Amino acid sequence: MSYPYQIQSREEYDSVYQKSVADPEGFWSDIAGHFYWRKRWDKVLDWNFTEPDVKWFSGAKLNITENCLDRHLGLLGNKPAIIWEPNSPEEHHRMLTYRDLHLKVMQFANVLKNNGVTKGDRVCIYMGMVPELAIAVLACARIGAIHSVIFGGFSAQSIADRLQDANAKFIVTCDGAFRGNKEIPLKSVIDDALVQCKFVEKVIVLTRTRTPVSMIKGRDVWWEDEIKKVETQGNADCPAEEMDAEDMLFILYTSGSTGKPKGVVHTCGGYMVYTNYSFINVFNYQPGEIFFCTADIGWITGHSYIVYGPLSAGATTLMFEGVPTWPDAGRFWDIIDKYKVNIFYTAPTAIRSLMGYGLGPVQQHKLTSLRVLGTVGEPINEEAWNWFHEHIGKSKCPIVDTWWQTETGGILISNMANVTPGIPTYATYPLPGVQPVLLDEQGGEITGNNVTGNLCIKFPWPGMIRTTYGDHERCRTNYFATYENQYFTGDGSFRNEEGMYRITGRVDDVLNVSGHRIGTAEVENAINMHAGVVESAVVGYPHEIKGQGIYAYVILNNDQVDKELFKKDITATVSRIIGPIAKPDKIQFVKGLPKTRSGKIMRRILRKVAEGEMENLGDTSALLEPAVVQEIVKGKL
Ligand code: PRX
Fold first, then answer.
1. Kind and range of the H or E run holding 511
2. Which of 53, 58, 360, 583 would give a disulfide with 43, using CB separation of 3.0 to 4.6 Å?
């Protein structure tokens, strides 16, 4: 299999880009022509950004799993689709060919059906990084159920909120997950969530750690038993459900600037075309190569570049269950050598953390199979870029710095390996079909180069968000209301003299901690739930490894308490309400917060103090009580 739409040179990129802007419908229709559709579209694109209402490939019928599995069986049936490296290097790895994966997806799709799941139902998936997670995702897509994967680091309360929002009656989980030297009791977290979610009808539990679990009669069933039933029924086949191009494929929750996560909705046709196109072009994937993306399938990166992008391209995707630093900090490099990985896609935070272990763990490895490197999730600092380039890529592998979001479905701005140049800290150029603009606060377009502004996209691309589940108005106000006729990303960006984009970070109250999006309002809500807390304000500060750390200013209702113990209590509260990923790194107790006369917290000041910039706090004359600022500065951690 080769890819007729894989761009081969800078000149070709320039001409393809021109075409994609001059005739977007013709451009995407040519690409979509390379997929398997049960019925072709009547119209390539219908759109307005006011409501918003975006439809790609209207009238077309397909099933994404036929594109990810069935259509490869002829040529690639015996080729590896998924290689799975377990948490412990002592345990045997697993390899699933396209034929194996096809069979397993159909079997589990039948399990879902036997348990009452039908087209359009929402299925929550809360599992560790085992092949069955990818199988469960694809099995949902096979029968037209909408998957909502929740990352294993979210708490019972977060799961309950998401289950309620999506009214998900079905759950697929594991007894537990292995991560480094830890065992995470996933089923027990689900049990806690279900105390509040009586509407859940079925929980399918895969055995992984075999930690004791309480299986509730009538509700909870074992994955393995259900598969046996399907086998004895002899119904190995599961025909793919015919889906409309604009039917929902999945929901993925993400943080915004309000206290409640939003269920970002992606649909079948456009998402398939876009993840495939971006995968093949950004990474310059060559048939037969091993692609290793270190993300978790609980995040969009895993959805798009472990599952759908690579599999729709007939690629071999490597899934890793564990963590980069266990049993030692050479684990990624072991895996790269063991499987001769060609393309390695990871997060700047992982690179920075591994840099901290020195070159010892790297030098024991050859890393000669590597051809392309990639980063995602946050801006990469120059030092980490150089280390990655020199020590991992041996100064010969291009690094693609891929900018995108849960809402964009796939990579929007990035250099393309071996096609367009990469320079440290720049995501560089838009992919064909992507039309970025920089706007000022009033919504005026900032033209020319060497300029900074708020990053918007002015024209639809097939992988974009369609709605926020159950609340379309929220989608409109969040992304399409700030600027008329624009999708607003929430990021700021600089454009240099060559028209390359450099993402400068969020311009809203959303933090990026280790590449994970966390809304400050969500963390504040969680802290404020602690009985001893009157009020809190959360801001980000630069963190050497995580990119951003979480700094919380907290007012207590009783000052005479054991402060160290209270910090632990607050941390435990955040863990319980959101999950361990949102734990504050620093908690400073204060008597007051800097507020304007209208009661608005002046976060600018709090941010500056957290960043250690105490000298130049700007104009504080509008504050109700300017004295609180001195106290805050004095108490800075
Ligand atoms: O601020 C940008 C940052 O991550 C945000 C999106 O987060 P999320 O939806 O969780 O998706 C992460 C994985 C796609 C963006 O708004 N971001 C993502 N990639 C980059 C980045 N910032 C700078 N450079 C990047 N390459």
1. strand 510-513
2. 58
